[in-house]
Amino acid sequence: MKVEQLRLDKVKALLAQAGWPxxxxxxxxxxxFVQTLLDALCDLSSRDPLTGLMNRxxxxxxxxxELDRVARSGxxxxxxxxxxxxxxxxxxxxxxxAGDAVIRAVSQALLDCVRPMDTVGRFGGEEFAIVFPNCPPxxxxxxxxxxxxxxxxxxxxxxxxxxxxxxxSCGGAFAPPWLRxxxxxxxxxxxxxxxxxxxxxxxxxxxxxQAISEVSAEEKGLLFGLNxxxxxxIHDQADQ
Length: 240
Hints:
Elements: H1 9-17, H2 30-45, H3 56-73, E1 78-84, H4 87-94, H5 96-112, E2 119-124, E3 127-132, H6 137-152, E4 156-158, E5 161-164, E6 168-174, H7 183-199, E7 205-207, H8 217-224, H9 231-239
Parallel strand pairs: 6-7
Antiparallel strand pairs: 1-3, 1-6, 2-3, 4-5
Helix pairs in contact: 4-5
């Protein structure tokens, strides 16, 4: 099939509206041109259109990958759920344009507080999720407080209104090391902590204590299809 036979008008219009630079299809480069369009569509489908952050679908893929890594390595990984306090009041009082400005400002504040290796996404509405790989437990409260304070310090400019100020409630939970679980379970645990932060008066941080998992080398082998150590070989080595 030739590129000219493909109905690409809507694809090109969608990518142009999103600000994607569209290359011209050069003779002999048809496959590369179509691949560029597919890559652009994949990226577009993984991002929240308002903030440019990862959307919920893409976040769930990232969570699944991180859970698999932690289950195999035992490393610490933190999921932090961040919810804008009294966001409905912002929309009801100042309008949805102001609400959009608040969401964009908060999303940028979150990006300013994380490492390049971390993942920030918009989970839905006024709620965000941040994945922190290789996050020591002692760091969880520190980064949560950094985010809380950074958002509280924002002065958000909205046309026709005085600068707006908002706060966030943050809840965090660690991925269980050496154990298989689901992204939904991880989100539910972090969400539970976020609701505790709301119940404590909002504009605060709650972190679930990290569970200590004792898993033997043999159990790890059974979990992940690795070859467990041979007890006879270990015994022979001990006798040498």
